[in-house]
TrEMBL record:
PROSITE patterns: ZF_MYND_1, ZF_MYND_2. Pfam families: zf-MYND. Keywords: Metal-binding, Zinc, Zinc-finger. SUPFAM superfamilies: HIT/MYND zinc finger-like (SSF144232). InterPro entries: Znf_MYND. This is Predicted protein.
Length: 282
C-alpha cells in the first residue's frame, strides 16, 4: 500500500519513519522540547505553523493518521502533560488551548492503546480536571478541533480514568468542576452557537451532558465503573485483530499491545506491529 503526501510517495515502512520525524517537528512547534517561560505565549507564527501541520494530516489515509498520532502518543504525552500543568489559561491562552486541542485529536483510546495507557496511568489523572475546567473557563477553538471534540476528550478521561482520583470518588473529575461543566453545557445546548456546530460535535456535547447526569444520579462510581468494565472487556482481546482470545502476554518492548500467546504475537510483529511498536515515554 502506498500514498502521496507533500509531493512524495510513501509505502508503509517509509511512512512510519516519516511520521516519527513529523511527530518530533510537532513536539518542537508545541514547545514540548523547550517549554515556554511562564510569561510567554505562542506567537501568531507558532500557531500558524502548528495548525498547518495539523491540517496537513487531514489529507492522509486513515491508517497513516493513526500511525502519526500513535507515535505522538507514545513519545510525547508525558511532555505534553508536564507542559499543560505548567501553563496558565489566562496568560498563555494560545499554548494552553493548543495542547488541549492536540489531545482532542488523538484517536479513541479504545483503538489507540498508547493513549489509553496514558489516560489510565494514575500520574496523569489530574489532567481530567485541568481539561474540564479549561473548557468551562473558555478555550480557543481551532479547526479541526472544536467544543465537541473537547467534550469527547473529557468523556475519554471519565470512561477510562480512575474514578477514585476525583474528590468524591464518583469520577476522575472533581464534583465542583463537574457541576460547573454541566452548567456550561446547559447554557450552550440549544443556542444558535450550538446549532451552527457540525452534527457530530453537537452529539458529543449532548453525550457528555447526559453522562454527567448519569454520574450524579447514581451512587459512588457505579455508572463509570460499569462502563469502564465493559470497555476494558472489549480491549482485553488479543492484539491480532482476527483473534478473539483473551490477551495475557504483553509485547516486551512497548508493554502496551497484548496477545493471547506467542503465535499471534509473532504473526502481528511480522504484519505491522514491528513498525508501530514504540517504547512509551511514561
Amino acid at each position: 500500500m502506498s500514498f502521496t503526501f507533500n509531493g512524495r510517495e510513501y509505502n508503509v515502512d517509509g511512512w512510519i519513519r516519516e511520521a516519527i520525524s513529523l511527530v518530533e517537528l510537532l513536539a518542537k512547534n508545541l514547545k514540548l522540547l523547550d517549554p515556554l517561560p511562564s510569561d510567554t505565549d505562542l506567537t501568531d507564527a507558532d500557531e500558524k505553523e502548528i495548525q498547518s501541520q495539523i491540517n496537513a494530516m487531514l489529507i492522509l489515509p486513515p491508517f497513516a493518521v493513526l500511525d502519526f498520532w500513535s507515535a505522538f502518543a507514545a513519545h510525547h504525552l508525558r511532555q505534553l502533560a508536564t507542559s499543560l500543568r505548567a501553563l496558565s489559561r489566562t496568560t498563555q491562552p494560545r499554548a494552553f488551548s493548543t495542547l488541549i486541542q492536540v489531545l482532542s485529536l488523538l484517536p479513541d483510546p479504545k483503538t489507540e492503546p498508547y493513549f489509553r495507557r496514558f489516560i489510565q496511568s494514575p500520574q496523569y489523572a489530574d489532567l481530567a480536571n485541568i481539561i474540564a475546567d479549561g473548557f468551562v473557563q473558555g478555550i480557543r477553538w481551532k479547526r479541526p478541533s472544536g467544543p465537541g471534540q473537547i467534550c469527547c476528550l473529557i468523556i475519554h478521561f471519565l470512561f477510562w480514568g480512575n474514578s477514585t482520583k476525583g474528590d468524591d470518588g464518583k469520577a476522575s473529575i472533581d464534583a465542583d468542576v463537574r457541576t460547573k461543566l454541566a452548567r456550561k453545557l446547559d447554557a450552550l445546548i440549544g443556542t444558535p452557537e450550538f446549532e451552527r456546530l457540525p452534527e457530530i460535535q453537537r452529539v458529543d456535547i449532548e453525550r457528555l451532558h447526559g453522562i454527567l447526569k448519569c454520574i450524579e444520579g447514581m451512587p459512588a462510581d457505579y455508572y463509570l465503573s460499569s462502563t469502564r468494565s465493559y470497555l476494558e472487556g472489549q480491549v482485553d482481546n488479543c492484539g491480532r485483530s482476527s483473534c478473539d482470545e483473551e490477551a495475557e502476554l504483553a509485547c516486551s518492548k512497548c508493554k502496551t499491545v497484548r496477545y493471547c500467546g506467542k503465535k499471534c504475537q509473532t504473526w502481528h510483529w511480522k504484519n505491522g506491529h514491528k513498525l508501530r511498536c514504540f517504547q512509551v515515554a511514561y
